[in-house]
Structures are given as structure tokens and as C-alpha cells.
Design brief:
Largest sheet: 8 strands, parallel, barrel
Shape: globular
Strand content: 5-15%
Number of helices: 13
Number of strands: 12
Distance between the termini: 35 Å
Order of helices and strands: HHEHEHEHHEHEEEHEHHEEHEHEH
Helix content: 25-40%
Strand order of the largest sheet: 1-2-3-4-5-8-11-12
Structural class: alpha/beta
Amino acid sequence: MAAAMPSNRSSLLLLPRRFLLVLAILLVATDEAVAAGGGGLSIGISYGQIADNLPSPSRVSRLVQSMQVRKVKLYDADQNVLSAFLDTGVEFVIGIGNENVSAMVDPATAQAWVQRHVRPYLPSTRITCITVGNEVFKGNDTALKDNLLPAMKSVYVALAALGLQGQVNVTTAHSLDIMGSSYPPSAGAFRPDVAPYITPLLDFLSTARSPFLINCYPYFAYKDDPTGVPLEYVLFQPNAGVTDPTTGLNYDNMLYAQVDSVYAAVQALGHTDVDVKISETGWPSRGDPDEAGATPQYAGIYIGNLLRRIQMKQGTPLRPAVPIDVYVFALFNENLKPGPASERNYGLFYPDGTPVYNVGLRGYLPPMDDSHGTRSVVHLFALIAMASIALMLS
């Protein structure tokens, strides 16, 4: 007859006191670090929601925290998302969609929007930036282009009225196609039809101390010319690089060259006081037959190598002392996005929380719709350990 197994209490009492004490401390400390976002990665992640199969915001909140990601970019101001991230320490960029930009020209409308979508969540949810519109100059809507800067100014004034102008930035995100020239980087210049809009916009960003946001996708260059664009150059893999004949600076990857071309264009319009930040970059894991390079392998290489550069706090050749600031696109694949197949396959995760490819970003999506489920389990084990210590010391 087999010997009887000891009870759970007896098993715990057999453990050394020092081990139990350390276990309790570690469990509590780990949980608090996750809840506060402590020691997080220096990347941001774009959280798009054009899908009908995504997990609830409360579950996504636990996933993001478990990844130790501390910055999230939304394309709206979803109240369910902002509420789910209360007291997590995660920083948020929230957005005003293009369809609402023109309305924001009215100061009263901008004030009402800020009162509804920003003020109630501060400081528990760390909203640090509002993007007014997205890739406005990519389209042909002249009214939208004309209204962009007045709308940004109205939102800024609304924030200032609440004393938030130094806490929450106001800016807009641009597509790289605003560039008329980007090679070599020192010759970077905005398109002639866009420059008249960008000049006063830069003046505003300088005054408001807000960044110039650019969506950069080296993948697009490779897809358009897979035989002419070296794969190693776009994937951050070892290569001889490209030397700018004017500055003598060497670029071993396209992303940094794109960013520095924007810096050159900004400087050409008289500004050296506006930071350029990457509001989107990514690589699709799947695409249509004519979308070269859209594979999990290449997506994993691009994101993995980018993460290593970010962790090195590396700057571009033109701004080596300024670590690049990047938001990776995107958290999930989004099954309702229009366009080619690649548009629906930029996610780091499938909607069920399974990684699309492995780049070392470990995350946990709770199986139940309970934002506190994981924390409760951790607390349970911590309490068991501490109770055991109390029993031993009694």
C-alpha cells in the first residue's frame, strides 16, 4: 500500500522558512510590478480594433501588462479601453478620427471632446498625447487638410483651459508619402503640395513642444521592388549599408534612413526643435500572391531586430544621442480591415492571444473575461505562503 501523501499544509510547513518568505515577497512584488507596468519595454504598440473577434479590453489590459509594454496607441478614445487600463501605469496615445477633425475646429466642440474623453481618465489612465487625424495629407479631401491645424489648435486650447497643455501633447500622424524626396536622407523634402500645410503645422508643434509623427514601413519599399531593394537592408540584417554622399553618414537599415530624411525635410523648413517619432511601423505575416515578403519569417526578423535596436537605445545616424521612439503596428491581426490581405495581418498576436511569430514578447491573455483574474491567482499563492510562515512562526 502506498504511503499517504502529506496534506498541503504539511507540505508547506516542510519548506524552509527563508524559502517561503522569499516566495511570498517575490509573488507580491511580481504582481505589483505587472500592475504598475514597472520595468517595461521601451516600445509602444498600436492597438487597432477593426475586427469582430478581438478579446475584451479588460483581457487585453492584462495581456499588455504581462508583456511589460508601457505605451499603447489607439486610433480613437475608446472609453472601454481607457477604463480597462486604469491604474496600470500604461501610457496612452488617443486619437480623433479624420471624420471628426473638421468638427474640432469649433472651440466648444473641442472643449466638450476633451472633457468627455480625456479629463475623466486622468491621472489614473496616463493619456500623454492626442493625435488629431491620421495620414490626412494622403487623401484628396481639401477641406480636411485645411481644417487640420485649426482643429489641433482648438484641442490644444481646450487642454490649456484645464491646465493639461504640458501633460498631454497634441499632434497628428503622417504617411511617409508626404515626402517628395527621401534619398539620400540629407535631401529629404516634403512634397510641394504638402509643404504649405506642413510649415505652419511645424510652427505649432514647436510652440506646443509636440512631436512630428511619421508612419514608416520599409516593407512597402521592398514589396514594390523586391529585386531592387536588398532584403537585409530593410530587415536590419548585416549589410554594407548606404552612405549619404552629403553627410558621409552610413545607414545599415531603411527605417533609420526614412526617419532622417524627415528630419532633413523638417530642418529645411526652419525647425531643429521638433522631434520626429515613429507612430507606426511593422511587417505583415501574410499577404496576397503579389505582396512579396509578407511571411511570418520576415515579420519576425523585422520586429525582432527592431526590438533589439530599441533595447540598445540606439539613435539614427543623424541623431545618435536620441533613442528612436517607436510604436509597433499592431497588437492583433484585424480581420475587418479593407484592402489587400497584408492589411489584416500585421498583428503580433492572433485574437486568441497566440503569437503570430516568436520575437521574445511573451504575453498572457486571460481565458476568462476578468481583468483581475491573473492578479487574484498570484495573490492567492502569496497569501498561502504568508499564512504558512505565520503558522511556522506561531
